[in-house]
Amino acid sequence: MRQKKLHVKKGDMVMLNKTITSARSAGEDREAGYVGKVLKVFPEEERVIVEGVNMRIHHEQPSMQNREGGREKREAPIHVSNVNPVDSNGEPTRVGRKKVEDPETGRSQWVRYAKTTGEELDE
Length: 123
Prior knowledge:
Blueprint: E1 13-16, E2 35-42, E3 47-50, E4 55-60, E5 70-75, E6 78-79, E7 83-85, E8 95-101, E9 108-114
Antiparallel strand pairs: 1-2, 1-7, 2-3, 3-6, 4-5, 8-9
């Protein structure tokens, strides 16, 4: 089965288009409109980890690096449909794909572009 291409990549700045709430994260919910960086992408599950969103408490066992162990706050994955990339104007945008040809080598490749401004999201 072919892996589905997502509209976001690691390192993209994205805006939440839905308020992320949970019974376990009372008082620390992120409102729609929050802008954060994508830390990790899970294409198989169609989920992403966004910096500062969906924080959870993870219980650490004592180890050589962390002698005391304890509780640590970490980001948990959210569904990719809840985020949109941000264009140069700071607005959320939908993503299109177009084929761009390299003039030096003559080879072409697919790049993502912002539907609002038309600029390329991939460098």
